[in-house]
Amino acid sequence: MELFKSMxxxxxxxxxxxxxxxxxxxxxxxxxxxxxxxxxxxxAARANLSPVMYEGLQPGGQLTTTTEVENYPGYPExxxxxxxxxxxKKQAERFGTDIRWGLAxxxxxxxxxxxVTIDNKKVIEAESVIIATGAxxxxxxxxxxxxxxxxxxxxxxxxxxxxxxxxxxAVVGGGDTAAEEAMYLAGLCKKVYLIVRxxxxxxxxxxQERVFNTENIEVLFExxxxxxxxxxxxxxxxxxxxxxxxEEKEVRINIDGFFLAIGHKPNSDIFTxxxxxxxxxxxxxxxxxxxxxxxxxxxxxDVMDPVYRQxxxxxxxxCKAAIDAERYLSEKS
Length: 333
Hints:
Layout: H1 2-20, E1 23-31, H2 34-46, E2 52-54, E3 68-69, E4 79-80, H3 81-94, E5 98-100, E6 104-108, E7 114-118, E8 122-131, E9 135-137, H4 143-147, E10 153-154, H5 157-160, E11 168-172, H6 176-186, E12 191-195, H7 205-212, E13 217-220, E14 223-229, E15 236-241, E16 249-254, E17 257-260, E18 264-266, E19 297-299, H8 311-332
Parallel strand pairs: 1-2, 1-8, 2-5, 8-19, 10-17, 11-12, 11-17, 12-13
Antiparallel strand pairs: 3-4, 6-7, 7-8, 9-18, 14-15, 15-16
Helix pairs in contact: 2-3, 2-8, 6-7
């Protein structure tokens, strides 16, 4: 009886070892989904690169948290973010992309064959890699941000500002991004409150001057966001003025939209030993291309774009990445 038990254990050990050392070779690996990843997949599949895509923790990317998308060409009546990403996915699958759920947990780009580990178990050995892991918007951490996501809370004024024409909105942040978002919204909205935690703006002097010279922008210095309120969406924000001082007081302002502009974090941590990044973590590519410092590794979408961060620009960069990958593999062979 003990003999059979030992043999069973041995078989389990073999199976475990097989799982731990599972290796698959592919021609083109795409890490991440969203407009950039799916577009790269469409082009790579049509170029017979037999792409394998791992979608990551959020299949479809940030757009899956967006309600109406009205500024993407080809959808004259508008479309929801999740539906649009499902369309992208179906088109990628139509041409043969192998789309899988999984998270890239480590990478090694030191050799000609690039190794990427999925879920700390499976190793993919790829002749070319397209990084489309996106960037994650930074949030304040209050519960109301989740409650009103898509119902008054946004991390992209360019994406969602149109829905607040003629209304009152607030922008949180004190840097150039916040100033730019406030300026953009000021051209659409009746009133824009710029909520700044400190008693000064971190934005460049030029942007500060533009903000201060725009009549419908009111800067609220030394204000911290405590909460949001509203029945069927955001109707107002609760602020704390001069928090932690004897002058501390609660302030309530009626608004229709609440925009976060405190930055994004590129999802590039596992690649930084092999590609160049800026001080924030955005992957740097050779100008005019999607090529990174690592030969055969390409980057597209929000993980390499600190400026535009739009679905249409991400899709365009995904196209470039697939074409660059196809030319690289063609020259290599």
